[in-house]
Write a structure and sequence with these properties.
- With 101 residues, the protein is α/β, with parallel strands linked by helices.
- It has one domain (2-98): Rossmann fold.
- The protein contains four helices and four strands, in the order H-E-H-E-H-E-H-E.
- It has a four-stranded mixed β-sheet with strand order 1-2-3-4, with helices on one face.
- The longest helix is centred in the last third of the chain and has 16 residues, at 66-81.
- It is elongated.
- The two termini are 30 Å apart.
Amino acid sequence: MFSNMLTANPDIQGVMAANDSMAIGVVKALEAAGRTDILVVGFDNIPAAQELVSQGKLLATVDQFGADMAANAIDLAIDVVKGGPPLEGWVKTPIELVTAQ
């Protein structure tokens, strides 16, 4: 739980959560602790995170365009299965930082 981390490390300045659900949990823990000085960022751009961004409780969320990412991965896999060249290295996909501005 983030509240335990906050108690053990009260000088934390920011949190980059692995997803928006975790970021929302961090925001709730910060509210319970009365802390408004810690910046929080999540990933996935879910509606609940968008609301917290608009309220200024979440600094940002990162939209990874999950449906597009999945469709792209399927297309790439089909191409390889059909005899296309094997994939090497990273496959970059678009992302967008979503902030209140």
